[in-house]
Specification:
By secondary structure, the chain is an alpha+beta fold. It has helices at residues 54-57, 68-81; strands at residues 22-28, 34-39, 43-46. It is 22% helix and 21% strand. The mean pLDDT is 80.
Length: 82
């Protein structure tokens, strides 16, 4: 069976230059869903996934990280009063 070396041998790749490949566990920070994908990192964390993203669900939810939404609303109220 022909390989990638063009002569009909085996598939030859350069040793020790390719990253390790893991079956990575992905964790969604918003909804807590976990799934596995192939990656060069053993574990991945995402803020929003396809299960909870408004584009895919059709619902809008506010993801508040450390009171950012409240601070923004207070700033908006101060600007409206001025």
């Amino acid at each position: 069976m022909p390989g990638t070396d063009g002569v009909g041998g085996e598939n030859l790749v350069k040793p020790d230059i390719h990253p390790k490949y893991f079956q990575a566990k992905v964790h969604c920070g918003s909804c807590g869903t976990e799934w596995t994908v192939g990656s060069t990192r053993p574990e991945l964390r995402v803020d929003v996934c396809g299960n909870c993203h408004p584009f895919f669900t059709g619902k809008q939810t506010i993801i508040d990280t450390a009171g950012q939404v409240e601070r923004f609303q207070k700033r908006l109220e101060r600007q409206v009063r001025s």
